[in-house]
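note to self: the first set is below, dont mix up w the second
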Amino acid sequence: MFKKLYIIDCRTEAIEIRSVLLLYLEGEKMSDKILAINAGSSSLKFQLLEMPSEAVIAKGIFDRIGFKDGKVKYQTKRNQVQKNVCIPSHEFAVQVLLGTLVESGEIHSIEEIVGVGHRVAHGGESFKGSVLVDEKNEEIISDLGDLAPSHNPISLSVIKSFKTHFPSIKNVAVFDTSFHQTMEPVHYLYPLPYSLYEKFHVRKYGFHGISHAYIAETVEKIFQQEEHAKENVKIISCHLGNGASICAIKEQQSVNTSMGFTPIDGLMMGSRCGSIDPMIIPYLVERQKMPIHEVKKLLNEASGLLGISEMSNDMRDLIQAVTKGNQKAILAIEMFVNRVAHTIASYIVDLDGLDALVFTGGIGENAALIRSLVVDKLQVFGMSVNKELNENGSLYIQDANSKCKILVVQTNEELMIARETYRLSL
């Protein structure tokens, strides 16, 4: 069978989109491959992995989908291509991606892809884990759109694109919330009338679950390889980036997490406010006459590091500004560090101790200064870092006197999505 698709011509390193006829569902199956998809409102990140070896075959991103100044990055072991190109829709990006993978020789036929794993932001209370997407699950994901209006509808549209154009491929939904479904009511309920939970499902859901699950699995394996292996490690995972959250983990399960009903709750973030007095919102609306849509935008896009520093939501910019004595940058960093340390301290109580403090995410993995400042505030718990190990980005960064291990682990959400997808696609 032949099917009309679109490709990025990697052989000539031209990024022109053109129509071609590609072999579809023909040819000998060479190996099992999984495609991990992370779709945003105007982007589509992907990784193609060979399983079960977990080798990355190709990866990239379609950025600014729907805009004239769109960008495509496509990387394999043989090629690395980047160019501005207009991608009108996520559906078109899906066709370009699959066509390019075949045409460039990364796969010999579409049939080699046994499953596509999709990051889905919100699974509500309906999904305790990853699922194959059938009609029933499609409908549930759609119904949960009100809880994640900027994310779930996009993910669902991409899933439908794969099912429409490539019906032989299994689609798996991997939820950012499902890892936190092990939390007890004492941690996930808000002190509001219980009827709000019963009627409207108002509760803490937590996010970054795919990342925190990867950290839990990875750190457990690291500890098992040690001479005096310890089981059921008590972990606090700090996913610190433009979006930031912390998760208390025990026996490979989420005990508590900082993000709540929405991803705006908890820590101070790049441009999100984190936890604030909720009465600030009616004060701004009723007394200062701010329209509610402006308040929502302020809380999501103009607060956090950006709001306090009045210069950037990027921690790298603030660290640079600190060296020049910028007082607002200093204040923003101090507030960020303070909230991270306070949350870690409270989660030590939830876990009744701590074996491993883990830093991950863009800030957690790369900002040695922030790691050092956070741990300095936790000295009362017997934590301390080795300056040289911390600045060199070692796996372990604690010094000899620290009462718990302190690690820097690069998160890999795409690999976690691929593992879940492969498990459900066999």
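second set (the one i keep forgetting abt)
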Amino acid sequence: MPDNVENDIMNSIDDYIMEFPKEIQTILEQIRSTIRSIAPEAKETIKYGIPAFELKGALVYFAAFKKPIGFYPIPTGIEAFKKALSIYKQGKGSVQFPLDNPMPLDLIADTVAYRVKENSDKALKKKDV
């Protein structure tokens, strides 16, 4: 991550992406497009200094670092795809995709679709109460 990304307040995902070298920008745009294709109604924002998508609550986040791309589908998104994600380094609610491997865009899409459904189901339950 460039030194100035951590300290500057980013106003948009575009601003965030522009801070990285071209090859990283391309990967970040692919991830962004993948998320948008599954959740076109999601609001783009910056949370915790990284790109975030919200749809009936927090949906997913992503970020670029020196060696991996961090993807944050909340703990339930990690749990739902535990087997497919097992080949990647993980934390609670996060996974790291190495930059020297192809980005698993289909897996990202599946995870986003799961999170969209999960948030929609939660929103419906709140309406029923």
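remember for set 2: Residues 1-9 have pLDDT under 50 and may be disordered.
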